[in-house]
Amino acid sequence: MSDKSTKKDDKKLAKDTGKKAVAKKDSSKKKANPIKSVGKFVREYKSELKKISWPSVKDTTRNAAITLAAIAVVGVFIWALDFGLSQIRDLGLKKIPEWSAAAKEDDVPSPSDLTVTPSDTAE
């Protein structure tokens, strides 16, 4: 008798009697031996590795060249965008009126202006 027919019979019996179906405990399950489990894993791992279709050297070289070309194109695009935006920024900063703080580089005190010399203290 299969598991499906057993489950159907349990459900039918539960329906007829009005009681819940009780799942049978499978006492045949034992704890797996860890060494056997590792051995089984290694065997399955090896069989899966054999199923892999590795690309040829020609395919790998072609794919690497495509990747490098794409990187170069994107790099040039980002550089051009950065260069263009920095030129627009510099052009905009030149248009700022002289009274703005960004255009007054001469008004920033130098370290020599901040030091006190004897001639500054004498009257």
What does it look like?
- There is one protein chain.
- The protein has a domain at 58-97.
- Helix content is 64%, strand content 0%.
- The longest helix is centred in the middle third of the chain and has 38 residues, at 57-94.
- It starts with a helix and ends with a helix.
- It has 123 residues and is mainly alpha-helical.
- It contains five helices and no strands.
Number of helices: 5
Task: Give Rg in angstroms.
Answer: 40 Å
Which structural category do the helix and sheet elements fall into?
mainly alpha
Low-confidence stretches: none
How large is the share of residues in beta strands?
A: under 5%
Order of helices and strands: HHHHH
Largest sheet: none
Please tell me what the overall shape is. elongated
Total number of beta strands? 0
Mean pLDDT equals: 77
Helix content: 55-70%
What gap, in angstroms, lies between the N and C termini?
117 Å
Short description:
This protein has 123 residues and is an all-alpha fold. It has helices at 3-17, 34-51, 57-94, 111-114, 118-121.
